[in-house]
Amino acid sequence: MIKNRREAIKLLGGALGTLGAASLFADENSTNSVNFMGGEAQNSGASNSVNSAGQNSAPNSIKQNSAENSSGDSASLYLRPPGALAERGFRSSCIKCGQCVQVCPYHSIYLLDITHLFDIGTPVIDAKERGCYLCGALPCVLACPSGALSHETNEPKKVKMGIAVIENLDACLAYRGQTLKSSDLRLKPAKTEQERELNSALAAKEGKVCDLCASLCPYPQPLEAIAMIKANEHFAPQIRSACVGCGACAELCPARIIEIIPRADYKSIYEGKQ
Questions:
Q1: 107 Cβ partners below 8 Å, 6+ apart?
Q2: Residue 216 pLDDT more than 60?
Q3: pTM recorded for the entire structure
Q4: Percentage of residues in the chain with pLDDT exceeding 70?
Q5: 99: closest CA among 132, 114, 121?
Q6: Residue 96 DSSP label
Q7: How far apart are CA 135 and CA 107, in angstroms?
Q8: Three-state SS letters, 16-83
Q9: Can you give the residue ranges of every domain in the chain?
């Protein structure tokens, strides 16, 4: 397990070279693994209740091309790894080396193929297949030799990938009070210790009322990003202002109702619209 940024740099070997090395030891105590065994998601209180009309769902205003978001980028259809520069700067800086792909312990990052024309070879994340788990050391950022993944993003709280939205609250298993079956967990083959820990945490949820999106949120203070709140007779997830759009919730959701809008933020999507 990669436990801190110093260890991550050692594992990267010569991939990083001396680029920004002096600043990378600033937070040696940050952990690179996510504690998935923290228990059930907490209820934030009845004052944030969700009614049957789905007030916690994404506003209609988000039903548009994600290019029209707060970043002002003309091409924000891709969910980029943590620390990615604004799309235009990212495209011009990324050298398509694949170092971020190689060091990701969750195998969340892949490179676009030739069908993506000018974006071929650039790294993306498909949140529905494998979200980002916000490793404390952010090895993908450390491995980037060009700065396309900015080394100023040196902790999960500084990550700004996008924002999560709930598309259809009525289909939410928690909202319907349904328990999780083994088929809902969709365990993936585990090649690393981090993936094995994630699979163990998922397996422990079988037979319990679904709260995967909130209880396994990898943000350091998950209740600031997503929480289960009272919704009629049951509970439902509520996206909160600290959400960084990592996509873990989109991957884990059995109902597949959580989407990630790349490069959008909470203010542009939710404030004044719920």
A1: 130, 191, 192, 195
A2: yes
A3: 0.77
A4: 71
A5: 121
A6: -
A7: 12
A8: CCCCCHHHCCCCCCCCCCCCCCCCCCCECCHHHCCCCCCCCCCCHHHCCCCCCCCCCCCCCCCCCCCC
A9: 5-269
